[in-house]
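Q: I'm writing up a methods section and want to include an example of the input and output format. Could you take the sequence below and give the corresponding predicted structure tokens, formatted cleanly so I can copy it straight into the document?
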Amino acid sequence: MPRLSKKSMARSKRKTPVSVIVCVYNEEKHLEQTLKDLLNCPTAEEIIVVNDGSTDKSERILKSFASKITLISYRKNRGKGYALSLGLNRARGKVVVFLDAHLKNLKDDHLKRLVSPILQRKTNYALGYYRMQAVKSDFFANLTGQRAYLKEILIPFLPNLKKTRFGVETYLNEIFKPRWGKIIYFSGLIHFVKHQNMPFNEVLPAYLHEVIEIYKTKTEIKLQQYHQLKKILNPKKIKSLRTLSKKLNQIKDQEVIDLIKSNLIPYLKKITQ
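A: Here is the clean output for your methods example:
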């Protein structure tokens, strides 16, 4: 069972609007600086750090911060999705922020810009990027670990989130499309990539493992969507265009919606006139 530390007495006991969740797996190189910077951000009213079975000095570093954070720690590595789900279950905030553990120059302005659109009810989620770029142009950048969500929209997906391991950002992107949320571009925030965060001989295996997990998650999502679509578009229950049109509201795949709206429905209307 996870071991929980006492909450920091320095943090407010009132219901917090913003909870920050940091997942840690062998992050000894940059972890201390990331947490020091985060503790200097007033926007982070609750800080939850999940030690996902680290085997390096990460746990020792985390214990030195135990009086200032909520620490969840367990021995066996279970993947980022599992870690985030535990943090999400513990979070008291209405808004949850996910941050990587290998950042530099993290400022309160970065967190404010990420959560403000949600607190102002302009969107339900926001994604943070490190440089001005087209989101679709960089495969891995599109899987940014810097994210903020209205907590209540994530709760229904917790069981699946828990199973995603390292494909968690892929899963979140499939459920909540990046183009539908708010995109935030950070200035001055440095994100250390794998070759800056681990021994060189571990970089290639780490990336390959990540690619496998990403496509495993994509395949599982498509399979889930297939079964959902088959249930929604049950030919035995849809006998009219009116019923079909109503069923479109239950479909999440925009490609399927466009196919039915732009092709199938016009065609059926034409042949029934």
